[in-house]
Design brief:
The complex is a heterodimer.
Chain A (H helix, E strand, L loop, with lengths): L1 H15 L14 H8 L7 E3 L5 H6 L4 H8 L33 H14 L6 E6 L6 H12 L4 E7 L2 E2 L2 E2 H4 L16 E5 L3 H16 L5 E6 L17 H8 L3 H11 L5 H23 L15 H7 L4
Parallel strand pairs in A: 1-2, 2-3, 3-7, 6-7
Antiparallel strand pairs in A: 4-5
Helix pairs in contact in A: 1-11, 2-8, 4-11, 5-6
Chain B lengths: L5 E3 H15 L3 E5 L15 H5 L4 E3 L4 H13 L3 E5 L10 H14 L9 E6 L14 H5 L5 E4 L3 H13 L4 E6 L6 E3 L13 E4 L4 E5 L2 H14 L5 E5 L2 E3 L3 H11 L2 E8 L4 H11 L11 E5 L8 H6 L4 H13 L3
Parallel strand pairs in B: 2-3, 2-4, 4-5, 5-7, 6-7, 10-11, 10-13, 13-14
Antiparallel strand pairs in B: 1-8, 6-12, 9-11
Helix pairs in contact in B: 1-6, 3-4, 7-11
Classes of the chains: A alpha/beta, B alpha/beta.
Chain lengths: 315, 331
């Protein structure tokens, strides 16, 4: 969680310094759901992520140096500089990618689960999505498919309470996204999305159900993004008080307190870990800064597989 | 060479699906009413009885979800073939086809492949009117990352589909509904018709016709009629819209010095516009002895009335008249 936090803070800083192009969507305050969901998954388990996907990518095992390289548009980046923040992905860890389309990953994760079922595998597919995506048709179609076909997929809603600027109160006829699971005859649970332990416990139950062939589940993680929607956000739709209330529920200090209270880690151990993260971030930043820029003649690489063969590009 | 063996266009497609499923256990079918019903046009027929419900999957009526699930399954190692009941319904799934399937490999730096096939029954002539009769090849052909093909014969219907299933990229296979019952020679073995290659169906010296799908047989009919008048038409079956086989077209135009494009999709911003532009930009332009002719669909939705429906797309007599004018104008 600390690595995700520091990665995003550094990413934001590099944006301000003009090193990063385009926009980015920070998940500061939402790290617990990414880590709590991904911590027990293997590389053979799939995830699909969202436009707010840096945490999912790191949680699934990506190396931050290749993520920074992607942000800086370098060939060394996970997507060779073709995707950027909004399409960040490391397929080698089972991450099928962040998505620029709200709800875009829902059918994809459901399809990955179908592929697992077709080959009689025991792996699972996890679909991260937001409260906003649960209003898209893709959400309803995917949950119906997954339930009818009993697919090994776990739908993880990170409900940060705003679809860009519009609150869930103003955009949803039900209070909780989990309620919608009832319509598709699957378990729908609500957890404190800022508690990594609570998220993980719900995930273990859902993953066991999926691996046993009992079908999909929906987990709704109640959380909050303490930063704006994207770089253009002027925070006109929520109060400072509301943001401060949620900052007080920051998942990272909360987890640190838990670790200390249960004697799992001492303050000095936590500080040592933070120092390691700091070094990793610095080294990753330097690696990415020294990366190779793509050449214009490589533009068509990756458009199609057969095209790549014609271009003689290695993939 | 195998002996002549006649199959209908739809039976040829069904044979391709069966052979692909027998050869590769990753291949499976998805679509609305493709199981015991046999498909809206009876293309999948009784495949569900041969391969079971896990490999011939009836889906809910949910094209966005269904097509997207096929895309996700493809990325995760399966080889799905998704049947749209009518290609018009692919518009419901255009998010997953255009934003996801077409771009995924590129966006992810070439690290994944998306070997999904969408079967796209298209075209007018069935009285199904505006929302069940479109020819949307050019619209999907506009998207880098997709491959778009369309057969005019049962032989190619089988070969192109087998090539599409084995292709590592997303392929949209358009099938003109009026061709389903047309019979022709189909080899029994598994063979592939290469994607991206046009074929000369009738050699000629006076003008080149580049036609697609059902317009190939109409153009061949027109060419036979004109042969009686001493006009010798070369007919090219385009077969692949993306990628497009410019070499075959340019070579033909250089020989005949006249070009007509015949297609059922709406004329404006369509396949004919692209072929005309490609020729105009190429060395073949210098060989042209007449303006390029486009015969495409009318600037209207497909109407219900059979009289109007015929008027909305090129018909053989219209092709004959237009080609006669094209050739007789030669100096």
């Amino acid at each position: 969680m600390y690595l995700i936090r520091r990665f995003e803070e550094m990413a934001e800083e590099s944006y301000v310094r003009g090193l990063t192009h385009g926009t980015m969507h920070l998940s500061v305050g939402q790290e617990a759901s990414a880590v709590g969901i991904c911590m027990d998954l293997s590389n053979a388990d799939y995830i699909t992520s969202t436009h707010r996907g840096h945490g999912h990518c790191i949680g699934k095992g990506a190396d931050v140096k290749f993520m920074f390289a992607e942000f800086f548009g370098k060939e060394e980046g996970y997507c060779a500089g073709r995707g950027g923040s909004m399409h960040i992905a490391d397929p080698s860890t089972g991450n099928l990618g962040a998505n620029g389309i709200v709800g875009g990953g829902l059918p994809l994760a459901t399809g990955a689960a179908l592929a697992i079922k077709q080959r009689k595998g025991k792996d699972v597919a996890v679909c991260f999505f937001g409260d906003g995506a649960s209003n898209e048709g893709a959400f309803h179609e995917s949950l119906n498919f997954a339930a009818v076909w009993k697919l090994p997929v776990i739908f993880v809603c990170e409900n940060n309470q705003y679809g860009m600027s519009v609150s869930t109160e103003r955009s949803m006829a039900v209070k909780d996204v989990a309620t919608r699971a009832v319509a598709y005859s699957m378990p729908g649970v609500i957890v404190d999305g800022n508690s990594v332990a609570d998220v993980n416990e719900a995930m273990m139950t859902a993953a066991e159900r999926a691996r046993n062939g009992e079908g999909p589940s929906l987990i709704e993680c109640k959380t909050y993004r303490t930063k704006g929607h994207s770089r253009s956000d002027r925070n006109r739709y929520r109060s400072k008080e509301e943001i401060e209330t949620w900052k007080a529920k920051d998942p990272i200090p909360m987890f640190e307190t838990e670790l200390e209270a249960h004697g799992v880690a001492s303050r000095s151990e936590i500080e040592a870990l933070q120092a390691d993260v700091e070094k990793e971030i610095q080294a990753a930043f330097e690696f990415a800064t020294a990366g190779t820029n793509p050449t214009p003649d490589s533009l068509l690489r990756g458009v199609t597989t057969t095209g790549d063969i014609e271009l003689g590009a290695s993939t | 060479m195998s002996e002549v063996r006649e199959l209908s266009f739809s039976a040829a497609i069904q044979e391709a699906l069966a052979q692909a499923m027998e050869a590769d256990e990753r291949v499976f079918l998805m679509g609305e009413d493709i199981g015991v019903y046999g498909g809206a046009f009876q293309v999948t027929g009784d495949l569900v009885h041969r391969f079971g419900e896990d490999r011939v999957r009836d889906t809910p009526i949910a094209e966005l979800g269904g097509a997207g699930i096929a895309v996700g399954a493809a990325v995760a190692g399966a080889r799905p073939v998704y049947e749209f009941q009518f290609s018009d319904f692919a518009l419901l799934a255009s998010e997953q086809i255009i934003n996801q399937a077409a771009k995924m490999r590129f966006m992810l730096g070439g690290k994944v492949s998306v070997p999904v096939v969408f079967r796209m029954p298209c075209g007018s002539g069935t009285g199904a009117a505006a929302q069940h009769s479109q020819s949307l090849e050019a619209m999907f052909g506009h998207v880098p990352g997709l491959k778009v093909v369309e057969a005019s014969t049962p032989e190619d219907a089988k070969g192109l589909l087998l090539a599409a299933i084995e292709d590592p990229d997303p392929v949209l296979v358009f099938e003109h509904k009026l061709l389903y019952k047309v019979k022709g020679h189909v080899p029994a073995e598994m063979y592939r018709t290469p994607i991206g290659k046009a074929v000369v169906r009738r050699p000629g010296k006076d003008a080149t016709v580049v036609a697609l799908g059902i317009m190939v047989s109409k153009s061949l009919e027109a060419a036979e009629i004109l042969a009686g008048e001493g006009i010798d038409i070369e007919v090219i079956d385009l077969r692949s819209i993306r990628p497009i086989d410019t070499a075959t077209i340019f070579e033909s135009v250089k020989k005949t010095t006249r070009l007509a494009c015949v297609y059922e999709g709406v004329k404006t911003l369509g396949i004919g516009a692209e072929i005309s532009a490609l020729v105009a930009e190429s060395e073949a332009f210098d060989y042209l002895d007449a303006p390029i002719l486009r015969l495409g669909g009318a600037e209207s939705p497909i109407p219900y009335s059979p009289i109007l429906e015929k008027a909305a797309v090129p018909q053989t007599d219209g092709i004959v008249a237009a080609l006669r004018d094209l050739v007789k104008g030669r100096t």
